[in-house]
Design goal:
The complex is a heterodimer of chains A (219) and B (419).
Chain A lengths: L2 H9 L1 H22 L14 H11 L5 H6 L1 H20 L1 H11 L8 H24 L1 H6 L2 H22 L5 H18 L7 H18 L5
Helix pairs in contact in A: 1-2, 2-10, 3-11, 5-7, 7-9, 9-10
Chain B lengths: L2 H13 L2 H9 L11 H4 L13 H11 L1 H8 L8 H13 L7 H4 L6 H14 L5 H12 L8 H15 L12 E3 L3 H6 L2 H12 L4 E2 L10 H5 L2 H17 L4 E4 L3 H15 L6 E4 H10 L9 E8 L12 H10 E4 L25 H7 L1 H10 L3 E4 L2 H13 L6 E3 H7 L5
Helix pairs in contact in B: 1-8, 4-5, 6-8, 10-12, 12-21, 14-15, 16-17
Classes of the chains: A mainly alpha (219), B alpha/beta (419).
The structure holds iron/sulfur cluster (SF4) (2 copies).
């Protein structure tokens, strides 16, 4: 296979396969959770479970005061890399064009320098998060292979995208191919790992808030 | 696989439902839950991280209920949960968790970790890995009707004493009463004043009430240890007694885990809604206050603070009622930092106090409460759970702090207006 053929394969069939694994994988994982169901709660409700569930989906975006004080770094770095990742993914012009071509929807982009700066901040935040994971005794204790793998597959698309944008390391076409490959890796790993929290946390928060809401507790 | 291990794994599988699967799927291993748990903050040992207490159950979920996990299992690539492992987890699941629910309030992805630890105990008990102290208490609860072995004559003796002191009749087995009062053995044996306090308040408020001689124990060891069949049997006794006396309401005593057992778990354990309403005693007092049927003639002048029993407030939803009552009875009521639904557990709930092996640990983690109290420096500490109260007194004594611990119900009874 020539270099050109390889690039074309990465942009074409490989991307399709990765997307398929991503979509089917995510749907299967969500269904796997939902089919387990749960028994109806027979206790007499004091408050609304549904309202509690919906409220918790929103309220858990914000930490309680004690957690913010005790885990300041963890909370802030977590916000930064999540927001940064989403901003670069969703508001960079070429990405939006890609979404428009594949999904048929588009939205306004952010100026490229803003995306550039966001990518740098996000990369730094991700490195900080990794160092923190290795140094913090609880996080190190909890972490296994999967946690480092997930870190890597999240980091690589940002790094390769950053390189491609600045036309460094490899020639631009090759770098973009590597960038797409890293995104494919991210998509393939996604359904099998904790990256699934992107979707399942809405269920988790809902259930938690539902249980609490019925009892008249705000979580 | 040994028969007991098989039973344990089976029980764990039975416990796994959509919420549990969503929680395990969502955990990002951020470690934030550790900082919410007094067993971690006071020991610094990462093994006390709440989500880690569930590791065997997480693996059962992964191996049984995820496509990828089943695939790996079929290829022999996954590590099955062993009996030794469950044995190793026993102290994590029982000694170092009070089911306080604080971790469930902070997890950023929304995991109700406490809900899962409660479930995990079902698997632990089924596989024979429950602590001796809890096994003993549960046996007594089934055979005698009380985890502390308190029998009817003991209650009757306390009732006679209360009647002599208050000059009031404590109604027993009165058919058609509006309210049936439940008690915890701890209250009967260590704080019979509680019965007197309720008698005085309900007499003044002209509430018709009774105690059943057949089911007066409200605590439920079956829940603490994690054996739902036993828990259901204990609840059923209360349901039968309430039906027999045709009461419209059942009053849960102050005890937090008793409230959880009868109010929230009860109907689910017996498999049908109750024909009566369950109210926590503080909820009832607050209703009487709102109706103008609870009147006080004086207030406490000393500086007071209120310790929320976890199962009453954070897990039970009785959060505002005690505060309104505190405002009513105290001139000088100050909240501890992180009170209400974010309150720190005393360290003895969830069966920890019945488990002697955990005695040192529960006193060690009491340092959290100590720090909270030092921030307020109250003259006295008010709470609403006899189990909390015993442990609070224990902890305060151990750390040389001279703060009396009061029951909110009893404090209110002392200030009742005469007419
Ligand atoms: S706080 Fe939640 S997401 Fe973080 S480690 Fe604990 S259970 Fe997992
Ligand atoms: S319920 Fe309370 S004691 Fe148990 S793990 Fe969570 S924070 Fe710790």
């Amino acid at each position: 296979m020539s270099e050109i053929e390889l690039f074309n394969w990465i942009r074409g069939p490989a991307l399709q396969i990765a997307t398929l694994i991503f979509v089917v994988g995510v749907v299967v994982r969500i269904l796997e959770v939902l089919v387990l169901g749960r028994k109806q709660d027979l206790s007499e409700a004091r408050g609304s479970g549904v309202a509690g569930g919906l409220r918790t989906i929103i309220s858990r975006m914000f930490p309680d005061r004690g957690t913010l004080q005790r885990s300041t770094f963890n909370v802030i770095a977590g916000y930064v890399f999540h927001v940064g990742f989403l901003v670069t993914l969703l508001f960079y012009t070429p990405h939006i064009l890609l979404f428009r071509d594949s999904l048929g929807v588009s939205w306004p982009a952010l100026p490229t320098p803003v995306i550039d700066a966001t990518a740098v901040v996000t990369l730094i935040a991700l490195i900080a998060v990794l160092v923190h994971r290795i140094q913090h005794k609880v996080m190190r204790f909890l972490s296994g292979f999967q946690d480092y793998l997930v870190w890597l597959v999240t980091f690589l698309p940002l790094l390769t995208g950053y390189f491609a944008f600045h036309r460094v390391v490899l020639d631009p076409q090759a770098m973009i191919a590597v960038h797409i490959l890293s995104v494919e890796l991210f998509m393939v790993v996604f359904p099998f790992t904790k990256l699934m929290h992107t979707f399942t946390l809405f269920m988790a928060r809902y259930y938690n808030g539902h249980i609490a809401g019925r009892r008249g507790v705000k979580t | 696989m040994s028969a007991s291990l098989e039973k344990g794994i089976h029980a764990l599988k039975e416990q796994i439902n959509a919420p549990v699967a969503s929680f395990f799927s969502s955990c990002v291993r951020c470690g934030l839950c550790a900082e919410a748990c007094l067993f971690f903050t006071e020991t610094g040992n990462p093994k006390y991280t709440p989500i880690h207490k569930l590791e065997p159950m997480r693996r059962v979920w992964q191996q049984e209920y995820t496509f990828w996990g089943r695939f790996a299992k079929a290829l022999g690539l996954s590590k099955p949960v062993t009996d030794k492992e469950l044995g190793d987890w026993e102290t994590l699941v029982y000694d170092s968790c009070t089911l306080c629910g604080r971790c469930s309030m902070v997890c950023p992805v929304g995991n109700d970790i406490t809900y899962m630890i409660r479930k995990m105990r079902e698997g632990m008990a089924a596989s024979g890995h429950a602590p001796e102290g809890l096994v003993g208490a549960t046996k007594l609860a089934v055979t005698v009707g009380s985890p502390m072995g308190v029998k009817l004559p003991a209650l009757q003796a306390q009732i006679r004493q209360v009647e002599a002191e208050t000059g009031l009749k404590v109604p027993v087995n009165v058919e058609g009463a509006d309210y049936m009062l439940l008690l915890s053995s701890m209250e009967i044996m260590n704080f019979p004043e509680f019965i007197g306090a309720v008698a005085k308040i309900l007499d003044k408020a002209k509430v018709s009430w009774t105690i059943s001689s057949e089911a007066f124990e409200a605590t439920n060891s079956g829940i603490q240890i994690g054996v739902s069949e036993i828990a259901a049997e204990l609840v059923q006794r209360i349901v039968d007694a309430a039906d027999k006396l045709k009461v419209k309401n059942v009053i849960s005593p102050e005890c937090g885990h008793a409230y959880m057992a009868i109010r929230w778990e009860g109907p689910n354990l017996v498999g049908k809604p109750f024909s009566f309403r369950v109210v926590h005693v503080l909820e009832l007092l607050d209703e009487l206050r709102a109706d103008g049927r609870l009147k006080l003639s004086s207030k406490e002048t000393q500086r007071l603070t209120y310790h929320d029993p976890c199962q009453v407030s954070r897990r039970g939803g009785v959060v505002d009622q005690p505060r309104r009552l505190m405002d009513m009875v105290a001139e000088n009521f100050d909240e501890m930092p992180e009170s209400g639904t974010m309150n720190w557990c005393c360290g003895a709930g969830g069966g920890v106090s019945s488990n002697e092996r955990a005695d040192d640990l529960r006193l060690q983690v009491f340092k959290r409460k100590k720090a909270q109290l030092e921030a307020v420096k109250p003259d006295a500490l008010v709470s609403a759970c006899s189990n909390c109260r015993i442990h609070l007194e224990d902890g305060l004594e151990k750390y040389g702090m001279d703060i009396p611990v009061l029951s909110l119900t009893e404090t209110i009874a002392e200030h009742l207006a005469d007419e």
